[in-house]
Structure prediction request, 120 residues.
Amino acid sequence: MSNKFCLVLTHAKDNVDRATVAFVVANAALASDKETVVFLTVEGVHLSQVGYANDLHEPGFAPLKDLIAQFTGSGGQIWVCSPCFKKRKLEENKLVQGAILVGGAKLVEFLSDGAPCVSY
Prediction:
């Protein structure tokens, strides 16, 4: 069994519920001692920008900015799809703590030993 866990997140303001639940699950994976990566793609790449999640709060959950800070503060990794990021003309100097731009090959390498991956 792999000691890794991956979440692919394709949403941000377009579906705050999914974005929130993804980071709730990501934090749970970290708490279970899994090396955890959140791969932001499509609209999800917006969450890589400092301040973007500040006003996103799904009722019944902690604010999204707090969930993201908890995730990265606990050692979680945020990988941002480089082509999606560039397509949306986002700013690399505004990446949140713990976020890095990566290509698809990095994700494939992470998953290659059988790491489970869920999508939101």
